[in-house]
Amino acid sequence: MELFPPIPLREWSDTKETLHRFLQIVGKIRLSASPRRNHWWNVPFHLTGNGITTRPMGLVDGNAMFTVDFDFVSHLLVARTIDGRSASFSLPGHSVSSFYRETRATLEGLGVHVRIPHPRPYDLPDADRPFEEDTEHATYDPNAAHRYWFVLSQVGMVLEEYAAGFSGKTSPVHHFWHTFDIAMTRFGSRALDQPREAGPLVREAYSRDVVSFGFWFGDETVAEPAFYAYVVPEPDGLAERPLEPARAEWASSGQGHLALLRYEHVRKEPDPRGVVLSFYESAYRAGADLLGWDVDAVDCPHGVTDPLCEIG
After folding, report:
1. Is residue 65 a contact partner of residue 58, using CB atoms and an 8 Å limit?
2. What are the Cα distances from residue 138, in Å, to 10, 32, 141?
3. CA distance 30 to 279
4. Which Pfam families does the entry mention (predicted)?
5. What is the C-alpha separation between 29 and 33, in angstroms, rounded?
6. H or E element: which one contains 215?
7. 191, β-bridge pairs
């Protein structure tokens, strides 16, 4: 199987826009039905062998434990309860409106009563339109959805490998439904006092200094898939630091910079996995050095902290 197969945004943008809203609906259920974790770690999806999962949730919202999974091999939404009952429906053929109604009806049929405080898209152009009224987004190409999951899974494994080299506080590798990216973040110990006007999402996500790494499938700003990294707070001189490979760049993003490496550039390399790992490491070294982190103290070669362990 090809590592990092082609997935140009233009070829599946309609499916991506529909699927993004499907994920937001289930993601908002996860947000409402899970115990809150620092930096919103309770909110994103995690990867499975055939799609993505909310992981177990419930109890805190009065429901028994339940999960909701997207199966991008059989193209189903699957809900399960802790007592072994399950229900599912096919993903193709749904608009956002019908998906929203069917998801809620499926959970109700299992005795799961969910509440979505704000049942509309988050930070998307149609953020004022309720999910139930969205009949515009209704494209689901099974081949495109499977390719999305396939790429997501491959990138996820590279991020897992890169995460192993750091023994400090590290987020899981997780898929964010609000931004439709997959990411992993390394944390420092410096507390940041974000301004109140930054809002609760930013204040919680960046309450410590971080270097974050990820991948997204493209959007209106960068209209192609790309690997990325960024540093918060962004230190002076970050954009002057070198990145690997030479095709990587520091791109302006709002008030700061993103380290960017285009997916198509990676695909053409003899060792694409190694190139991505080198890219992440170069961005990490640039950010951690300027933030004043003790890089040696948290270094964790091959995921091992035992000084007597021999790596074979």
Report:
1. yes
2. 17, 25, 10
3. 32
4. DUF5996
5. 6
6. strand 208-216
7. 208
pTM of the model as a whole = 0.95
Q: Count how many residues are written for the chain.
A: 312
Rg (CA), the chain: 20
**Token output for 2:** 């090809």
Pairing of strands 174-176, 86-90: unpaired
Tell me which residue has tokens 């999962």. Answer: 53
Q: Which helix (H) or strand (E) segment is 275 a member of?
A: helix 272-291
**What is the C-alpha to C-alpha distance for residues 6 and 146, in angstroms, rounded to an integer?**
13
**pLDDT averaged per 10 residues in sequence order, the chain, 312 residues:** 91 97 98 91 95 96 95 98 97 98 98 94 96 98 98 97 96 96 95 86 88 94 93 95 97 90 95 97 97 94 86 66
Angle between helices 142-163 and 13-33 (to 10 degrees): 60
